[in-house]
Amino acid sequence: MVKTKIAVCVCSGGIDSTVAAAIASQEDYETHLFHASYGQRAEKREKEAVEKIAAYLGAKELKFVELPFLKELGRSSLTDITREVPVAEKVNLVKQGETPSTWVPCRNLILLANASAYGEVISAEAIFLGFNAEEARSYPDNEKEFVRRYNLVLEKAVASYCQPPTVKAPLVDLLKPAIIKKGKEVEAPLHLTYSCYLGGKKHCGICESCLHRRRGFKEAGVEDPTDYIQE
Ligand SMILES: [Zn+2]
Description:
This protein is of the alpha/beta class and 231 residues long.
């Protein structure tokens, strides 16, 4: 059956964006996965994961964009290898009012702007994202209010004869365990996802992202398919 609705699914290769893409697929959108390389440590692993996820979901297309400017800017420990990514007990040491070292300046806004341009060209009705309540605790560009305001901007950001796509964040109110349960429900390929900030072949098990992943599976009561270095 030919699908009439088109969605761009911004996908990092992690759990959240993969579940969001699986939801788009279940809602009968023709999915076009979109992945950005911005010099993140995990670039290679994320790209490998997204390729597998796109194939699993039967995506119509997989679009990659290179955004080296974000690495050039530095500052983030995800792109600047001279900075340390906090692991284990150091993860929760960020003080009130302090920017976490893993913050990448305006990353989601920049990613979304690129995904929106792609969406305009392919006449997408929607742009699916994995924004969620877990990430919103650390990063303001995961909040519902960010999505609402961005959708307003988008109305004026596409050509006047175009219907702008709507940004959808179906996980925006959910924490990791609920996202994983939702993932099982929509048959998302959780076993193909990659979350580790460090970018090693195996998940480190102790960076912030790995800690969320582990806890998420545990609290969801779902078997964790991940092979962690640090048990
Ligand atoms: Zn890790």
